UniProtKB/TrEMBL annotation:
The protein's name in its UniProt record: Class I SAM-dependent methyltransferase
GO annotation, biological process: methylation
Keywords: Methyltransferase, Transferase
Species of provenance: Dyadobacter flavalbus
Domain of life, source organism: Bacteria
Length: 203
C-alpha cells in the first residue's frame, strides 16, 4: 500500500478536496529552492473564495522566506515567526535569521521575528486574516500551534498534509475542536485549509 493510498483510506474521508477556480502567480516572487513552490498559485483563489480581508497574515515557519514573500503580495502586513535554526525534518540546521532578514529586506511589509511559536502565542492576542503553519511536522507541535492559529485567524493553512500523516491528523483534530470547515489541496506536498466561516460571516 502506497503512502497516498494509506492517507486517503485513513485520513481523507471527512476532508473536502480543494479545487481552485483559477491559478494565478503573484507579481513578487523569491527565486529560491522551496518545497512550497506551486502553492503560490492558489493563494489569491483562497482569499477570493472565502472573502478574506487583506490586512494581516502570520506565518509560523518561515525558513528561507519563499512563502512569506508570496503572502506579502496579498496582505498589508506579514509577520513571520521562526527559530531560524531548522528542526528534525529540515536539511538546514544552521542559524539563518540574519541571512533570511537580508534576503527579505526589500519586502517592507514583512516583519521577521526570531522566536519559538510557544513563546509567541503566549503573548499575542491579535486576530489575523490568514495564518500559515509550517513548523516541525509532528502532531503535538502542529496541533498546539495550529489550534492557536485557527482561534486567531479567519483562515489557517497547513503545509505538508500529504507528506506527513501526523500533520494531517493534527489538522483534522483542530477542525473537530474548532468546528471549522476543512479542505485539502493535495499537490506540492499538500495544503490543509481551515476556514472560520462564522468569523468571516461577521465582517
Amino acid at each position: 500500500m502506497g503512502l497516498r493510498t494509506y492517507i486517503n483510506d485513513h485520513f481523507i474521508k471527512d476532508i473536502v478536496p480543494y479545487k481552485p477556480v483559477k491559478l494565478s502567480k503573484p507579481k513578487k516572487m523569491l527565486e529560491i529552492v522551496s518545497a512550497w513552490k506551486g502553492l503560490e498559485m492558489i493563494i489569491a483563489d483562497i482569499i477570493e473564495r472565502f472573502g478574506l480581508k487583506n490586512e494581516s497574515c502570520i506565518e509560523f515557519g518561515v525558513e528561507f522566506g519563499y512563502s512569506a514573500v508570496v503572502f506579502s503580495n496579498y496582505f498589508k502586513s506579514v509577520t513571520g515567526v521562526d527559530t531560524f535554526e531548522g528542526d528534525i525534518h529540515t536539511e538546514n540546521k544552521a542559524e539563518h535569521f540574519q541571512e533570511t532578514s537580508n534576503r527579505l529586506a526589500e519586502y517592507q511589509n514583512i516583519v521577521l521575528v526570531k522566536s519559538d511559536y510557544r513563546d509567541w502565542i503566549k503573548r499575542d492576542n491579535k486576530r489575523y486574516d490568514l495564518a500559515h503553519v509550517d513548523i516541525v511536522h509532528n502532531y503535538k507541535e502542529t496541533f498546539e500551534c495550529g489550534l492557536w492559529a485557527a482561534q486567531h485567524s479567519s483562515c489557517t493553512i497547513f503545509h505538508d498534509t500529504e507528506s506527513f500523516p501526523e500533520v494531517r491528523r493534527a489538522v483534522k483534530d483542530i477542525a473537530a475542536e474548532t468546528g471549522q470547515k476543512l479542505y485539502n489541496y493535495p499537490y506540492h506536498y499538500g495544503l490543509g485549509i481551515l476556514v472560520d466561516k462564522k468569523s468571516i460571516g461577521k465582517k
